[in-house]
Design goal:
The protein is built from nine helices and eleven strands. By secondary structure, it is of the alpha+beta class. The chain has two domains: 140 residues, GAF domain (Beta-Lactamase, 2-Layer Sandwich), CATH 3.30.450; 161 residues, Alpha-Beta Plaits, CATH 3.30.70.270. A hairpin with a 2-residue loop joins strand 3 and strand 4. Helix 2 packs antiparallel against helix 3 and helix 3 packs antiparallel against helix 4. The longest helix has 31 residues. The protein starts with 6 loop residues before the first helix and ends in a 14-residue tail after the last strand.
Length: 319
């Protein structure tokens, strides 16, 4: 029997030092407590842009003192702003870009001038943070696309479902008052059949703009099907919601889309429902839909307030 080692055994013997090196490197990575390693390790744990910027701000503060950190980025049609602290007269600005794509801007300010060594440390920290920030921005953009109506650029039905559930939770927990308006364009099929879908699309876009004008920044505007829109009014009782619904109706009635020398106009009907305590989002939506149905039955171009229980099966909940 020869004294040579078999290939399998040889591979096992050769791999032992490598395994020790892997274990040692892993242990060093977990135990390293310098700011550069910590920020790299911690920023690999989340895809939330707000969470990542907060981690970066915390770890940077352990290395370079500052009075204020501000991060800004345009995500789709929304401005994302993270700000911490109060600023000073000295500042440094960084444009975060990777492979030619912009991922926001970071500004640091304080009362004392930044030293060259501190600026170098900030840039090294940013070189570690840029890839996680890029990933979080891409993730946020995908999420926003999934929750946005492609035609009107306002939130869609999926976003409405999430918002209604959130308002129900806040209402049951804190007793917040919230009203819902369902708004449906009258005889919109006739507009599409007569003037074409291009004109119809122009009207839908115009309606989304008018809804934004007629409501507050804190209100939620959604397109959740065809010519139907929803408006969530936080901290708004039924009496105030009725005023908003009337204002919306007036704004929509003022829309004019020129079509070959003729102005095409639109009207809308609305159903209003203030959420009742303990009511589910489906029940709340059903009452608003019932009020909308009654507005349509009363001749359209008007608003109606929901009763305590719906009188019919809502259209969007019908199996």
């Amino acid at each position: 029997m020869s004294g040579t080692t078999t290939p399998i055994t040889a591979r096992k013997h050769e791999s032992t030092p490598n395994l020790r090196a892997i274990r040692k490197a892993s242990e060093q990575w977990r135990q390293a407590d310098d700011p550069y390693t910590r920020v790299c390790r911690r920023m690999a744990t989340s895809l939330s842009l707000e969470t990542l910027i907060a981690i970066f701000a915390e770890e940077l503060a352990s290395l370079v003192s500052y009075d204020q950190l501000t991060y800004r980025h345009q995500l789709g049609n929304q401005d994302f702003v993270y700000a911490s602290g109060m600023g000073g007269q000295h500042r440094c600005d960084y444009r975060l870009a990777l492979e030619g794509v912009n991922y926001g801007g970071l500004t640091l300010s304080r009362r004392l001038r930044f030293a060259e060594e501190e600026l170098a440390a900030i840039e090294q920290m940013l070189s570690i943070a840029i890839c996680p920030i890029r990933n979080a921005c891409c993730y946020a953009s995908v999420q926003q696309t999934a929750l946005t109506d492609s035609l009107t650029s306002i939130p869609n039905k999926r976003a409405l479902d999430e918002a209604l559930s959130r308002e129900c939770h806040l209402g049951d927990r804190h007793g917040n008052t919230c009203s819902l308006i369902l708004c449906d364009l009258d005889n919109f099929k006739r507009v599409n059949d007569t003037y074409g879908h291009v004109v119809g699309d122009h009207i839908l876009k115009a309606v989304a703009l008018e809804l934004a004008k007629a409501t507050r920044n804190s209100d939620g505007i959604f397109r959740f099907g065809g010519e139907e829109f929803a408006i969530i009014l936080p901290h708004t009782p039924e009496s105030e919601a009725r005023k908003v619904a009337e204002r919306i109706r007036e704004f929509i009635a003022a829309i004019k889309v020129n079509c070959g020398g003729k102005d095409v106009m639109a009207t809308a009907s609305s159903g209003i429902a203030m959420r009742q305590h303990g009511e589910t989002s489906d029940q709340w939506l059903a009452r608003a839909d019932d009020a909308l149905y009654r507005a349509k039955a009363r001749g359209r171009n008007c608003s109606r307030v929901a009763s305590s229980v719906p009188t019919q099966q809502p259209r969007f909940l019908t199996p």
